[in-house]
TrEMBL record:
PANTHER family for this protein: COBYRINATE A,C-DIAMIDE SYNTHASE
Keywords: ATP-binding, Cobalamin biosynthesis, Glutamine amidotransferase, Ligase, Magnesium, Nucleotide-binding
Protein name as it appears in the record: Cobyrinate a,c-diamide synthase
Pathway listed: Cofactor biosynthesis; adenosylcobalamin biosynthesis
Transmembrane feature ranges: none
Top-level taxonomy: Bacteria, Pseudomonadati, Pseudomonadota, Gammaproteobacteria, Oceanospirillales
């Protein structure tokens, strides 16, 4: 089997910590080069639903997640290779700090040879910013650092102090002034969903383009060096994915309350032969004809009254559940499946009642982390990220297995054809288990 290679300019945006401005700058760069007629493909490191929505609007291209643990090296390699065939530029936005997590952003960049640009909020420091950036750049020999992006830089004198303190091997790529007009809107689980503020985002993207143009250092405004991307060896000419969902229709909840949907998961369902249709638990009165349902995560806690008052939909899903057909309910979808949900205003509303228990929102602290779902159908990888709790639920059939911590992860429930958990599953990590979850009650 011959190995193919495609070269494409690429840059990995990283930072010493969260909240340094990575997403804002990645979106600004994507829109800057898109406005020049370039095809920009953006990837987001790790499990994230909200940033990719923002970045997809900024780049006008689909945005996929890259995570070596959740998806596997060959999957990530294949995604980058496919993007390189059509893109003029590949941007990857990291997660958390540069070396945080196992694997980290640095691990991903090193594995695929993508140079990293360090985004740092330099408010309140000058030469120290150069020291921190130099330390990050020299921490590992296998990571290539293209330079520093000084965000929230107060003045040209501020920039000069940082620039002069950097070694010649670590250029200052851009000095970006403080500008609240380009800051992206946020809420309790992260950024606001793009569809809710689409027009506002357009204004901010174009303002961010002008913001980039004002930098005294222009290294960021030129295309980075090309990187070789190689075809993955995971699929050869004789390997064909078994279409175990061929002829099946899967109805996916998708609206303002349920939107945490990986494009990769939809592609996986279609690769298994399924037809995917969408419905809105908020607005529709009936379910589409389907063999299985997927109730993904989202923000049901912001729409408890509307979800509760849509009695025809609640009755339709309950009847579907009692038919024994497969239902996957993830995080917000699981909260919707419970008897009732107490929202952020401490108001309690009846929900579907297909899984015993009560859900309630809690304060700022939440649960998050990568886990492997261990269920009778097998093992499949995913992650948890929530700021709610559930109580009085049935005995679980399994738990998530954390990456390193020995304590049990999220509980996983199965009743009739329902599989419910706080875990968000990544379907490509195990297509066979994915198919079995949706085929519940239809096998044998």
């Amino acid at each position: 089997m011959t190995t193919s290679v495609v070269h494409c300019p690429a840059l990995f945006l990283t930072a010493p910590a969260s909240n340094q401005g990575k997403t804002t700058i990645t979106a600004a760069l994507a829109r800057y080069f898109t406005n020049q007629g370039k095809v920009v493909r953006v990837f987001k490191t790790g499990p994230d639903y909200l940033d990719p929505q923002i970045l997809a609007q900024a780049s006008k291209q689909p945005v996929e997640q890259l995570d070596i643990w959740m998806a596997g090296e060959e999957y990530c390699q294949d995604m980058l290779y496919q993007a390189a065939q059509v893109a003029d530029l590949i941007l990857v936005e990291g997660a958390m700090g540069m070396f945080d997590g196992e694997p980290s952003s640095a691990d991903l960049a090193a594995r695929f040879g993508i140079p990293m640009a360090i985004v740092m909020d330099v408010k309140g420091m000058a030469q120290t910013a150069a020291a921190v950036a130099t330390g990050l750049a020299n921490f590992r020999d296998d990571v290539q650092v293209a330079g520093l992006i000084a965000n929230r830089c107060g003045s040209e004198r501020h920039a000069e102090l940082i620039r002069d303190a950097l070694p010649a091997s670590l250029p200052l790529l851009a000095t970006l002034k403080r500008d609240e007009e380009i800051t992206l809107p946020e809420r309790h689980l992260g950024l606001v969903q793009a569809d809710e503020v689409k027009d506002e985002l357009e204004v901010r993207f174009e303002a961010a383009v002008e913001w980039l143009k004002e930098t005294q250092d222009t290294g960021l405004l030129a295309l980075p060096n090309a990187v070789p991307f190689y075809a993955a060896k995971q699929v050869d000419d004789n390997q064909i994915i078994e279409q175990s969902l061929l002829g099946k229709t899967i109805a996916v909840a998708r609206d303002a309350a349920f939107s945490f949907i990986y494009d990769a998961n939809l592609i996986a369902l279609k690769s298994l032969g399924a037809k995917v249709v969408f419905f809105s638990p908020l607005h529709d009165q009936a379910l589409p004809d389907a063999d299985a349902l997927w109730l993904p995560g989202g923000y049901p806690e912001l729409h408890t009254k509307a979800l509760s008052e849509n009695l025809p939909m609640r009755q339709a899903i309950k009847a579907f559940f009692h038919s024994g057909k497969g239902i996957l309910a993830e995080c917000g979808g699981m909260l919707y499946s419970l008897d009732d949900l107490t929202d952020l205003d401490n108001q309690c509303y009846p929900m579907l009642g297909i899984l015993a228990g009560q859900g309630a929102m809690r304060g700022k602290r939440g649960c998050q982390g990568m886990q492997t779902a261990v269920i009778p159908q097998g093992e499949i990888r995913g992650h948890a990220h929530h700021r709610s709790r559930s109580a009085n639920t049935p005995e679980p059939v399994g738990y998530g297995r954390r990456q390193r911590h020995p304590a049990p992860g999220e509980a996983i429930y199965q009743q009739k054809g329902l599989t419910a958990s706080y875990l968000h599953l990544f379907f490509p990590s195990n297509l066979d288990v994915t198919a079995k979850i949706f085929l519940a009650g239809q096998q044998g």
